[in-house]
# Entry
Amino acid sequence: MAVVNDAEPQAVYRDDGGVLAVSLAGRWSVERAPRLEALTNELSERVRSVGQARLDLSAIERLDTLGAYLLGQVRQEGQAHGVAVEVTSSRPEHAVLLREVEHEAGDYRPPVHPIGLVTVLVNIGQAVIRFGRDLAGGAVFLGEVMTACVGVLFGPRRFRGPSLVNQVELIAFAGAPIIVLISFLVGCIVAQQGIFQLQRFGATAFVVNLTGILVLRELSVLLTSIMVAGRSGSAFTAEIGSMKMREEIDALRVMGLDPIEVLVVPRILALIISLPILTFISAMSGLVGAGLVSWLYGGIGLDTFLERLKSVITWQHFAVGLIKAPFMAFVIGLIASIEGLAVKGSAESLGHQVTASVVKAIFMVIVVDGLFAMFFASIEM
# Structure
């Protein structure tokens, strides 16, 4: 005697006065997916061959979203072929589930990917809108930071001194070795290429002018800012973003503390203090590398290199690089903090914001450097 498995999805067909009456039973759930697929295919074929059909779900033991979706597909296919399909059930939850699944499936629209000029124009428009929103958000956040700084200035007890010292140590002290190494190598490379080109004109000695002015005015502050944006800026975004994900920033607000004062202001001030220091270290390291290569490749002794450097370099060249540093530090800190506070509740969002922080900070550093170059050229400095 065969044993019938009541859990298997079943469909019993009968003719009720010209209407195809189908009684469904069993478990119409995801664990019976293969059987459901075969059964709904058979059901769809039978429904399409009649003029009217009625599906009775009263005997179904369990109906989940997969079963409801497949039954909805049967009804839609029948209606598409001109068949009136009626779904009935003595259990109200079946009707609710079918309605919700049909609503969600109806809201879905496959993405359309236009090609050619339309795509380019749409992407440009979206980029402009994002840029405008970022600009407006940055202006609002800048106002909040300025307000917090004024509040700290008039209420020194609210300032987080230990946090500032800790951030200065992490940025300046821990970041100095990599800054020294990279600046030294870049100074060596610039001096080597300068010597090879100037030797053609018998002007090897002018490599001192080239490296001295270039390192002090541009390379030292630019390299340092890019390294700090990639190293410390990304760390700021990750730290603040992780706190945002764990709702620690909301906890600070509940405790009556301003997250801008507690988290953002000490980090920005630490950057403003640390970046000029690292810029000076970078400039000295770059000049050491240039002097070493000039001695090895150009035959310029260290005494000669220093004397010529002293005669070429003025305080203005030295000041230009240091003047840029605090402004670049402020931009890096501002962008890193904005992106950190923009993190949502997922790890994917954190990774996206950290990447955006580094890219935007490096871009803005180069923009600020270009603006300062035009400014100093206009005042002949």
About this structure: The two ends are 103 Å apart (CA to CA). The beta strands are 10-16, 19-28, 52-63, 84-88. DSSP finds eleven helices and four strands in the chain. The mean pLDDT is 87.
